[in-house]
Amino acid sequence: MTTKKMQKQDRLTRELAVINEIAQALNRTVDLDEALRTTLAHVAALFALQTGWIWLLNEQTGESYLAAAQNLPPALTEKPQRMEGACYCLDTFHAGDLAGAANVNVITCSRLSGLVDGTANLRYHASIPLYAQGKPLGVLNVASTDWRELSADDLRLLYTVGDLLSIAIERARLFAASVQLGVVEERNRLARELHDTLAQGLSAIALHLETADVLLDAPDKLDQTRQAVRQALTLTRATLDEARRSVHDLRAAPLEGRTLAVALKNLTQEVATKYNLTSMFTAIGSNRPLPVALEAGLYRVAQEALTNVGTHAQARKVRVELLVTPDKVQLTLQDNGRGFDVASIIENRYGLTGMTERMKLLGGELQIESEVGKGAKIMASVPLVDGDTAKLVK
């Protein structure tokens, strides 16, 4: 066998080994975030690249969001707004120009254009389109400081990796949808249980009260009347406890079909109008889908915090910011009110206990910064990687 043929055989063997390794890794998980991180790590190792990121299209809105990233330069991590909105590669993808292996190509990164510091010398990246049965899913970008032109074999291999990732994305989304369907079915079951519990309990209570009402006309039946009333009270307490338990289990997301960003924006405006405040709301990365339980928890925290601003802070301005990155989601609320001494405040005052417990249940934390006369700042932060939140229903 000639040297050239041996080199070709070695390359094919290596490519098959890499593809097999990536396929096995993707087959081990149905979690979308894990699949994305796994692919980025393998691609970076395969091509000796330092940086990579993945854009996905939101299934409901069609808007792109940063779904995963590895080793982004400081210019992008410290200014997450630079990863918002359109760019050259996404515009090209939406235009359909990235379809086909021949067009998996090197593109100048418009997000780093004009920047000098904090770019880690990155200027170009390869863009790999992600499709599933003709449906656009997103774009995989990989970059290196010492970028070289990729060979036709490299591009073909990257396109194969993109195909594997596309299949993994579709599978993860189908699994998440099936889990969500199970949640809806469980919610409906609890609703039926709640209806049955209340109906049976209230019927029994009514029966005992009717008995007591009849016995009131008989003075010699006072003990029986008391007994009927006591039984009605006992049943009332039991039914109330059962109703509370069911409602707690049944508690649905308060967003009413809206995205978290839209719901928070509307909430901020409503509170500002009610308490005559000047408000500002900003959202970065809000196109990224989040677990339902996480959205509900953050909304409730914002609701409690904004109510506190309106009723206790004596503030004139309030600012709310939602930041979503591949690693975390952070909700920040800041006012210019009278402030307070964080060290001396009673923990359950202003609903702080409830907000703290909500964040703990989500695997996150609540941070409070305030000084007397200098307003207050509340930050609710939840990691989206390697935490309990990754297991929440999406």
Describe this structure in words.
This protein is 48% helix and 19% strand. The longest helix has 64 residues, at 152-215. The protein has 3 domains: 3-178, Beta-Lactamase (2-Layer Sandwich), CATH 3.30.450; 179-250; 260-391, Histidine kinase-like ATPase, C-terminal domain (Heat Shock Protein 90, 2-Layer Sandwich). α7 (260-274) packs parallel to α8 (292-311). With 394 residues, it is an alpha+beta fold. It is elongated, with a radius of gyration of 28 Å.
List the helices and strands and how they pair.
Blueprint: H1 3-27, H2 32-46, E1 51-57, E2 64-70, H3 74-77, H4 88-94, E3 105-108, E4 124-132, E5 135-143, H5 152-215, H6 222-250, H7 260-274, E6 278-284, H8 292-311, E7 317-324, E8 328-335, H9 352-361, E9 365-370, E10 376-383
Give the H and E element order. Answer: HHEEHHEEEHHHEHEEHEE
Strand arrangement within the widest β-sheet reads 2-1-5-4-3
User: What's the rounded overall pLDDT mean?
Assistant: 78
Which stretches of 5+ consecutive residues score pLDDT under 50?
A: 99-103, 387-391
CATH top level label of the largest domain: Alpha Beta
CATH fold topology of the largest domain: Beta-Lactamase
In short:
With 394 residues, this protein is α+β, with helices and mostly antiparallel strands. 48% of the residues lie in helices and 19% in strands.
From the structure above, extract its key features.
394 residues; alpha+beta; Beta-Lactamase; Heat Shock Protein 90; five-stranded antiparallel sheet; 9 helices; 10 strands
